[in-house]
Amino acid sequence: VTIIRGALDLQDKAVHIAMTPIDKVYMLPIDTIMDRITMREIYSTGHSRIPIYGGSRKNIIGVLLTKSLIMYSPDEARALKTFPINTIPTVSAETPLFDILNTFQEGRSHMAIVIEKEENMPIGIITLEDVLEELIQEEIYDESDTRIGLAVKLDTGDQLILASKKRRGESRNQVYHKNKFKSPKSRAGSGQGTPSKFEIESNRAGDLMIFDEPSMVPTGASY
């Protein structure tokens, strides 16, 4: 039933609803040197496709398939412009998701640049996975997903932990699970024990984010 409802909604939902805004997209400039540091950075994002731009981030000239990097040694430190760069189609922000799904099914690309019609400027990126998530109405996770922790300050004694899963290198598609607990300081003072392993590891990794107001707590899918 969920998939049927999602399929019916694809005709009514526009591309801009499911896209990733252009300022949130991981990209590389065409003059990048593909050395060991850059390749490690690309790997850490977990992306299979990297948009490539020339000059400005809004001048996207193609897409790099990360699987093609296996053929090259980072010790060569080659210029990115010498690598095979695939063309990337453009689509209007108001295009129905059903139409872009048909375009993706043709197999020429699983990523497209979303263009704002009036200014004819890119405002985001849409992928096949984005459309499929709208179809099945839930997030798609794979082996590159990681779990992070967000702590939200509610008052002087209590906090709210939001354990979320996010794809490595991305900040969207987060699913939050709330769990109220006493803050480490207040629990230590009241004899309620030491911080949990989750809190300790999250603090060490720098994953804890403190919000001043409960209204700032992220809910649902967000950027």
From TrEMBL:
Subcellular location: Membrane
Keyword field: CBS domain, Membrane, Repeat, Transmembrane, Transmembrane helix
Domain of life: Eukaryota
Biased composition (Basic residues): 168-185
Gene Ontology annotations for the cellular component aspect, listed alphabetically: cytoplasm; membrane
Stored Gene3D superfamilies: CBS-domain
Domain CBS, first and last residues per copy: 84-143
Membrane topology type: Multi-pass membrane protein
Keyword Repeat: yes
GO biological process: intracellular manganese ion homeostasis; magnesium ion homeostasis
Main location: membrane
Secretion signal, residue range per the UniProt entry: none
Pfam family of the protein (one): CBS
InterPro entries registered for this protein in UniProt: ACDP, CBS_dom, CBS_dom_sf, Ion_transp-like_CBS
Region feature (Disordered): 168-211
Name this polypeptide is given: 7006_t:CDS:1
Organism: Cetraspora pellucida
